[in-house]
Amino acid sequence: MPSRHIFHHQGEVAKEIFFLLEGICHAVYFTDKGKEFSKQFYWENDWIIGFESLVNQTPSPYQLESLTPCSIMSLPIETLRTWRKNK
Question: Which of 10, 18, 32, 43 could join 48 in a cystine, given CB atoms 3.0 to 4.6 angstroms apart?
């Protein structure tokens, strides 16, 4: 994906987990006044998981964005649940 690509928007419920193969990403949140704060940076070989949103199925307070060109694998949580149920 190109740099500055948003692959998860603030306020969306997380439905997948990501593995960063190449590049740099960050989790960012915006205040009501539009001020941007970086919460966390992700580097190659990092897992990117909106854990609380994923587990509780609640809107994520964070936006996920690539800062450089990136290669990312995504795994839908439903695929993981199905695999776990059938193993």
Answer: 18
Q: Where are the domains of the chain?
A: 6-86
Q: Is pTM beyond 0.70 here?
A: yes
Q: Residue 26 and residue 5: Cα distance in Å, rounded?
A: 11
Fold adopted by 6-86: Jelly Rolls (2.60.120)
pLDDT tens digits for range 21-42: 999 999 999 999 999 999 999 9
